[in-house]
Amino acid sequence: MEKKSSSLFWGEIHIHSNLSDGRGSPKQNLKHARDVVDLDFAAITDHAEDLNQEKWKVTKDSTEYLNRLGNFVTLLGFEWTHPSGKEVWEPLVREGLSPSELDFPLYGHRNVYYKGRNGEYFAWNDPESDTPDKLWDKLREQGTRFLAIPHHPASYVFPVDWEYFNPEFERLVEIYSIWGSSECPASQDNDRPILRGGGEIPESRGSHVRDALSRGCRVGIIAGSDGHDGHGGRTRHHIQNLTEHEGPFYPSGITGVYAEELTREAIWEALWNRSCFGTTGGKIKVKFSLDGHGMGSEINQLNVPNVNVGVEVYGTADVRKAELIENGSIRKILKGNSPEFKRDIEMSLPEERPLYYYVRISQVDGELAWSSPIWID
Ligand SMILES: [Zn+2]
Ligand SMILES: [Zn+2]
């Protein structure tokens, strides 16, 4: 089948409003994302635990209203917020345990996005949906399409135990938000690790994005804000009271999506297909391909010794380097010295399968971008 051409659209789909613990109404936040941050798509993801049917109706109506005005797309979503708390991360951090070694289940947080305009919200404090498995069952029962995205998986407060990963619905991971980057530990070359007050770096071992990829979770990459301050799409502060959540925080991230057109269906499908990438906030355009297969692809190249690696970046500042990550380690560093960065290289493939590759872009101003991976089986 001939692939239709796609365009790049920018969005941020992790916004909290005053319907849960954020500021500003859903409409105000979505308009801020559209008009001030100049995004093409956005979504409100209020904590389901704070919602009721009346508030959910406001979420649905506001989401639908902004989507219908045209030239801007919204997705209907909510956040399932499991409260893995201090009592969990303290021993985890102190003793260096990995999530699966704890008695307490570390389900983490999931944002759920519907493809259509209808769907219910499900909260962890409802006995009907208090585990990921029950959540998937409830979502499945509705007979409408949805995708789920875990966020800040390496957070010390709310880590994700990848043991509970669901390959059927979890197509993406939010690698970066104001919390920091969950790509890999600070010790392994992460410039923006998740921090506590005072700049301490307590990370949850085994919960990073590379851990997920290495254990076979085939997640694409997005970045967001997790903003709560009424500035939808680009938050200024995490919450109303900064000390409450033990900052410090980083600037908001955003997501670039290659979609056929700017419609809810096309954006949702492109996210489902992992045809996307995340940045630390700058509109850094990233293209990454292996033998012409784009981000998110799974390709079969069992007996081919070489692969063509294509990296194309249009930065918001000079691109310092593009690092090609192969199964968790840096395979190649391609250096740059201008905002426009284009490389096409032939590279030998190791024998092991499966392989995953993604690129991490670093600009001279410290901004970063991460492509979604491509898998070779
Ligand atoms: Zn969350
Ligand atoms: Zn959130």
Topology:
Elements: E1 7-15, H1 26-36, E2 41-44, H2 53-68, E3 73-81, H3 86-95, E4 109-114, H4 132-141, E5 146-150, E6 172-177, E7 180-181, H5 209-214, E8 220-223, E9 254-259, H6 264-272, E10 276-279, E11 285-290, E12 293-294, E13 298-299, E14 306-314, E15 319-326, E16 329-335, E17 340-348, E18 355-363, E19 368-371, E20 374-376
Parallel strand pairs: 1-2, 2-3, 6-8, 13-20
Antiparallel strand pairs: 1-9, 3-4, 4-5, 6-7, 9-10, 10-19, 11-12, 11-14, 14-17, 15-16, 15-18, 18-19, 18-20
Helix pairs in contact: 1-2
The protein binds zinc ion (2 copies).
Protein name: Polymerase/histidinol phosphatase N-terminal domain-containing protein
Pfam family, one: DUF3604
Organism: candidate division MSBL1 archaeon SCGC-AAA259A05
